[in-house]
Amino acid sequence: MGGQKLSAKAEEEVVFLETLLQQIAHLAAKTEEYAGTKKGDDILQAITRQLTAIRQKAMMKNLGPVADSAGILAIAVGRGSQMQRTRMLREGLTSYQQLIERTMKATIGADLRKRAEDEKVMAQRAATQNAAAPHPAPGQGE
Known about the structure:
mainly alpha
């Protein structure tokens, strides 16, 4: 994150998305394991289960697009031959990783914009209050 100060909600989302990236790396390794076996139904079921769990956790965090993509990928890898499933997993996990990275960037950007806007409003209020405060007449001391 580069030492950026984020709100608690944004920090929680970014940490969750970072753990998703780690899980995606694990799923990519499982995909390569699946590609190298003759019959990898157990591996495929584990991948599907993990994608479904990711979908549920993302739904609980109100990350709809992230959840939807995981659900779509979980369903899509259940179709076709082993070669088609492997290709679908490789391509799907790559695009899913990119989606997570874009979501992280958008979350951080939105939080920083909100913070800047809040600081601007606070500065305007302070300026308004200072302008409305009575000033002593010249020569009457401080």
